[in-house]
C-alpha cells in the first residue's frame, strides 16, 4: 500500500508552480541547464514511477528535493494519482527530464460529512468532491471505491478544482482521524469584524491564525488561500494558518510552464484560465486531441508555454485530455511492451506516455510498467476509442489487479438484439440468471432493460468469458457517462 501525503488542487498547483514550488529549497534552478535541455515548471497528475512521470515526461528525481505539504519529504510519500509540481529541466526529446524540486499540497484533507455513492460525490470539510473514472482509491479504502467511505472518515483528496470550486478527485486516501484539516479555495463572505470567511460551504475563523503573504496583512474576498486548522467550534474551522496563494509570483524567468488542469474560466479560445492561471493562444498554438472549438468550461487540458510580461501564459501547445467512457477488466491475452500494446478481451489497447499505470495487485510494484505485464495477468483498463472507429482502445488508466474469475466490459452499446447486445466489439449474452439494473441502481426485469437500452447508451456488463469476445453476463447495468 502506498502512503501518500501529497495531493494538489488545481489552484494550489499553480500557486506552488509560480511561487518557487513551495518551501523545499535547495537545488532549484541553480546555474545554466545542460545542453539540449530547457528549464521547466510542470504541474499535473503522477502517472507512473521509475522516477516520476508527469505530463508525459519521465523526470529523474535522484537529485531532487521534495516538499510535502510545506515540510521536507521524499518520493516514498507519493502515489500514482497524486498531483505534483516539478521544477527542473526537460530534454529536447520532450520525454525525459531531471527534477530539482518536487512540491505539493492536498486539495482538501479533513472529515467526511456526506457520501453519495450513486451520484459519485462526497463532502469533505465543506468541500464538494466529485469522483469519476479518473479517481484512484488507496487500498486502505474498503473495495477501493466510494462505497468504502462513510461519514466520519478522515480523508486526503488529490485533484483539480473546477469552475464551481468543487474538487475533481484524482486520488483519495483514508488518514487517521484527528489530523490537520487543510482546505484550498477562494475566500468569500469575508467579515473582517468577526474575522471570518467562507470557502464554499466551510466557515473559517482566522481570529488567531498566522497570516502569510497577504498584502498589508489583509485578507480579501476573491483571494485564493490555503487554510489549516485542527478544531471545529460549532461547525466553524478555527484556522491556525491562512496563506495566500496565486499565479505570477515567480514569472521572472524563462522557464516553460506545463499545467494540467480544468478550464476554470472561459471567455474565448484566446482568453481562459487553466487551474486559475490566465492563458492565451495564438494562431501558432498547436492543439492535440481536438481543436480550439473544443475548449470549454471544466474541460481538462494540459497547456505548455511561457508567461508574458503580464503573467498570462502564452500557449505553445494545448493538449485536450478527453474523458474515456470504455472500461475493460479481464485477463491479458497478449502483450507487446516494445510496441506499447496489449490485448484484453480481444481488444487491442494502446499505452502511451500519459497513460496512468498502477500496480494494485499483491506484487505492488512501485515502478510498474507495461514491461511488467504478462499473459494471464488480470488488469483493468479505462480509455477511449482512438483512432475513431478503429476498435482500438487508447488507455488513460491501466491497473494490474489480483486475479478474478469474472470479466467486465463497459462502454457505449453498438448493437441491441435481445437477449444480447454488443459493447466495443464484445458480445454480451444475457439469460435467465442475469440481473439487470437501471441508472438509479434499481433492479429491473430483462424486458424493462431491453425496453430502455438503445445504441449509444453506456452499459456495464460483468460475467464470464465463454469465447472469443463473448461474455456470458450475470450482471448488466445502465451507467452514466462518467462512471
Description:
The chain is globular and about 70 Å long. The chain folds into 6 domains: 10-104, no CATH class; 108-179, Copper binding periplasmic protein CusF (OB fold (Dihydrolipoamide Acetyltransferase, E2P)); 182-243, Beta Barrel (OB fold (Dihydrolipoamide Acetyltransferase, E2P)), CATH 2.40.50; 256-320, OB fold (Dihydrolipoamide Acetyltransferase, E2P), CATH 2.40.50; 326-401, OB fold (Dihydrolipoamide Acetyltransferase, E2P) (Beta Barrel), CATH 2.40.50; 407-479, OB fold (Dihydrolipoamide Acetyltransferase, E2P). The strands form 3 sheets. Strands 1, 2, 3, 4, 5, 6, 7, 21, 22, 23, 24, 25 and 26 form a 13-stranded mixed beta sheet that branches. Strands 27, 28, 29, 30, 31, 32, 33, 34, 35, 36, 37, 38 and 39 form a 13-stranded mixed beta sheet that branches. Helix content is 3%, strand content 51%. The two termini are 25 Å apart. Residues 1-33 and 248-252 have low confidence and may be disordered. The protein is built from 2 helices and 39 strands.
Layout: helices, strands, pairs:
Layout: H1 10-18, E1 37-49, E2 52-54, E3 57-60, E4 65-68, E5 71-72, E6 83-91, E7 96-104, E8 108-116, E9 121-124, E10 127-130, E11 136-137, E12 154-161, E13 167-175, E14 181-186, E15 188-191, E16 196-199, E17 202-205, E18 210-212, E19 224-233, E20 236-245, E21 256-268, E22 271-274, E23 277-280, E24 286-288, E25 300-307, E26 313-320, E27 326-336, E28 341-344, E29 347-350, E30 356-359, E31 378-385, E32 393-401, E33 407-417, E34 420-423, E35 426-429, E36 435-437, E37 443-444, H2 446-452, E38 458-467, E39 470-479
Amino acid at each position: 500500500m502506498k502512503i501518500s501525503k501529497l495531493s494538489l488542487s488545481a489552484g494550489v498547483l499553480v500557486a506552488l508552480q509560480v511561487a518557487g514550488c513551495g518551501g523545499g529549497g535547495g537545488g532549484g534552478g541553480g546555474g545554466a541547464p545542460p545542453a539540449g535541455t530547457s528549464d521547466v515548471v510542470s504541474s499535473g497528475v503522477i502517472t507512473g514511477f521509475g522516477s516520476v512521470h508527469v505530463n508525459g515526461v519521465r523526470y529523474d528525481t535522484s537529485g531532487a528535493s521534495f516538499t510535502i505539504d510545506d515540510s521536507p519529504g521524499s518520493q516514498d510519500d507519493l502515489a500514482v494519482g497524486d498531483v505534483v509540481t516539478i521544477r527542473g529541466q526537460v530534454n529536447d526529446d520532450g520525454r525525459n527530464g531531471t527534477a530539482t524540486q518536487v512540491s505539493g499540497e492536498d486539495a482538501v484533507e479533513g472529515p467526511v460529512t456526506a457520501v453519495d455513492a450513486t451520484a459519485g460525490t462526497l463532502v469533505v470539510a465543506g468541500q464538494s468532491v466529485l469522483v469519476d473514472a479518473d479517481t484512484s482509491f488507496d487500498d486502505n479504502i474498503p473495495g477501493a471505491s466510494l462505497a468504502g467511505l462513510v461519514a466520519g472518515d478522515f480523508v486526503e483528496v488529490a485533484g483539480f478544482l473546477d469552475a464551481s470550486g468543487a474538487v475533481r478527485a484524482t486520488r483519495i486516501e483514508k488518514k487517521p482521524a484527528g489530523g490537520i484539516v487543510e482546505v484550498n479555495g477562494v475566500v468569500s463572505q469575508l467579515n473582517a469584524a468577526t474575522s471570518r470567511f467562507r470557502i464554499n460551504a466551510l466557515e473559517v475563523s482566522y481570529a488567531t491564525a498566522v497570516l502569510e503573504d497577504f498584502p498589508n496583512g489583509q485578507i480579501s474576498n476573491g483571494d485564493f488561500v490555503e487554510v489549516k486548522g485542527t478544531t471545529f467550534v460549532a461547525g466553524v474551522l478555527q484556522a491556525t494558518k491562512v496563506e495566500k496563494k496565486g499565479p505570477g509570483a515567480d514569472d521572472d524567468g524563462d522557464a516553460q510552464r506545463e499545467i494540467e488542469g480544468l478550464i476554470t474560466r472561459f471567455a474565448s479560445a484566446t482568453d481562459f484560465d487553466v487551474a486559475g492561471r490566465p492563458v492565451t493562444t495564438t494562431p501558432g498554438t498547436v492543439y492535440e486531441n481536438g481543436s480550439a472549438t473544443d475548449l470549454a468550461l471544466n474541460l481538462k487540458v494540459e497547456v505548455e508555454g511561457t508567461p508574458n510580461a503580464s503573467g498570462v501564459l502564452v500557449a505553445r501547445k494545448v493538449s485536450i485530455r478527453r474523458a474515456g467512457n470504455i472500461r475493460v477488466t479481464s485477463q491479458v491475452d497478449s502483450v507487446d511492451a516494445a510496441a506499447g500494446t496489449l490485448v484484453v478481451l480481444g481488444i487491442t489497447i494502446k499505452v502511451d506516455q500519459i497513460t496512468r499505470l498502477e500496480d494494485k495487485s499483491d506484487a505492488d510494484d512501485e515502478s510498474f510498467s507495461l514491461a511488467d505485464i504478462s499473459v494471464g495477468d488480470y488488469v483493468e483498463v479505462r480509455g477511449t476509442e482512438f483512432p475513431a472507429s478503429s476498435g482500438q482502445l487508447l488507455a488513460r488508466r491501466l491497473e494490474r489487479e489480483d486475479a478474478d474469475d469474472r470479466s467486465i466490459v463497459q462502454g457505449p452499446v453498438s448493437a441491441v438484439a435481445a437477449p444480447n447486445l454488443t459493447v466495443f466489439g464484445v458480445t454480451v449474452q444475457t439469460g435467465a440468471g442475469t440481473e439487470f439494473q437501471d441508472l438509479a441502481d434499481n433492479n429491473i426485469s430483462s424486458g424493462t432493460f431491453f425496453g430502455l437500452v438503445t445504441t449509444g447508451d453506456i452499459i456495464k456488463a460483468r460475467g464470464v468469458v465463454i469465447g472469443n469476445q463473448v461474455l456470458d453476463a450475470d450482471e448488466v447495468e445502465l451507467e452514466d457517462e462518467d462512471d
